[in-house]
Amino acid sequence: MAEEIEKSVPAEESLMEKIAEKIHHHDSSSSSESEYEKPDSPSAVKAKIYRLFGREKPVHKVLGGGKPADVFLWRDKKLSAAVLGVATAIWVLFELVEYHLLSLLCHISILALGGLFLWSNVHTFINKSSPQIPEIHVPEETFLVVASSLRNELNQAFVILRSIALGRDLKKFLMIVVGLWIISVVGNWCNFLTLVYICFVILHTVPMLYEKHEDKVDPLAEKAMKELQKQYVVFDEKVLSKIPIASLKAKAKLG
Q1: Distance between CA 134 and CA 142 in Å, rounded?
Q2: pLDDT at 44 over 60
């Protein structure tokens, strides 16, 4: 009799364990279903908000990340100020003082080589150690990576220009023409060095300001893009659609 009682106790325990497992499995499945039925989280809703130029990454990632992005976004204020100060000094030297690049490079080389030469020869007389000049060489792998990246970008640009020249994309053709015309107008106002300096200052100010006020800028940019799209649709209906591109292509093939 005692043996039968002992056998029934484990049987009851195993039965209770099975019931508990079924209840637990039912709860987990219902909780997972409720998770699917929940509305989108705030982060998911935020991700659906319009961003300038349709970007999906943070501004830091768009700028390439790493140290250059830190400089442009003023994460390291001392380094960013130093880089902008050096660029401003170079622009002042070449534009305001009218210093020439070749003369500047030669004078810097003369001062550097002269100082190192004197130091190497008189260090024993002034009880100083000789200058430790490191061996500088360009790594082959880094050079090949940069050259390959540049080659890919050039090839992509040539592909786009070829497709535009063949009349395959009228929209890109108009965008390129307008962009080149704007650059030509700006080129009449200032020379190439001043234009590069202006672009450099813009890179040091606009991304940083945009990152601080992107929640205010993006809605305005969305409205502007919608208005531009409306205007483009009107322009397409009134002007672009009336250009006989197909007939011109047919004539070109027959010719």
Answers
A1: 19
A2: no
